[in-house]
């Protein structure tokens, strides 16, 4: 895995993305060359003197569309049929729409209908070939990593289950587990490694061709914990990480049940510098302003539909908890009936909530109900990307029941967030814990790069009508 702005990115996906960008840029030049050859000319037509910029714009539009449709959330067991027929062709159709809008705004980038048809045909074929080669390579076990776990208890068994699941980005081959005398074994006996007399941990790792050691011991106190041997392994090129980092890397979450406070204190991340705050605020204003202009017709039609179905009010304000625990009024399109909480007691919102109107059901699925929160962003009460703000009633409960819940209030809440695109609806304390683990990951690793990824994932959720 690579780390880009604190966010873990699969090396496989990074390489695949890089190759496909080159294929798309190459397909633009190939299409233009074929078109020029057909016309019997030796130079590019007028208007194509800045063709490299046009080719890059085309590649970005297609890659953005493929990302929005989930083509870089790889599933190696899917095969080619699903991504090619259900995702690739719609991705190029979406890319065509984006390019049409781009050419309208910047006509100097337009490179002609004849060239565009050839470019799209060559590009789609090149992507199909690249994905075919990628899948064949992955079947040859080229992307497996051999790992060894220090520990054999409950935490180690959880790590084993995580490593053995059908990996989206890469696979693991578990060399084995080294049992610790301080904990009861919970892993299969056949996976426990025998340490030969006088054999060091480094020698054992080399004997089993181990690339990485994961320390999955719940209690590291006592003389039995091999801290010096782990240091030796790290000094001689074997990567050593702890279970918390392993979970963070593989699930994009920060586990709260086995988290040590020292890991949060001494670990990296949690960037709240002036530069980060300035960049994020600028990002919020640019994205929110653009979205406001683009969505004005949609917002007008939504307001009209709400009034026709259930009359006024069109909007509703609700108290939410924001940065540093301060409350504010969040603005949304009303998606529930006027008497949704007759008793006055707050209730969890459910996925098929009977209190939701027909219009409300649609705008919640498409997240149109969140659009008025753009005004909260302009006021500085919210960010465009961040943990979703909760009501004070639920915050009070969750703070008592869920460890580290208040950490999510160290940054501004958002219209969309990492938990919303990764988990979906939350209607219980257990759901709140799962979403908190995603929120903690965002608070720790937030960056402009991660914000852009969340925006792309949000578009995918809206188009697929999933999540919340």
What does this structure look like?
The chain has 468 residues and is of the alpha/beta class. It has three domains: 2-139, no CATH class; 144-251, AF0625-like (Rossmann fold, 3-Layer(aba) Sandwich); 274-464, no CATH class. Helix content is 51%, strand content 10%. It is globular and about 75 Å long.
Query: Share of helix among residues?
Result: 40-55%
Based on secondary structure, the structural category is alpha/beta
Biggest sheet strand order reads 4-3-5-6
The strand count comes to 10
Number of helices: 16
Listing every helix as H and every strand as E from the N terminus to the C terminus, the arrangement reads EEHHHHEHEHEHEHHHEEHHEHEHHH
Apparent shape: globular
Number of domains: 3
**What percentage of amino acids are in beta strands?**
5-15%
Mean pLDDT over all positions: 85
Described by strand count, sense and barrel closure, the largest sheet is: 4 strands, parallel
Membrane topology: Multi-pass membrane protein
GO cellular component, one term: membrane
Keywords: Membrane, Transferase, Transmembrane, Transmembrane helix
Pfam family, one: Bac_transf
Defining key terms:
468 residues, alpha/beta, Rossmann fold, 3 domains, four-stranded parallel beta sheet, two-stranded antiparallel sheet, 16 helices, EPS_sugar_tfrase, Sugar transferase, Bact_transf, transmembrane
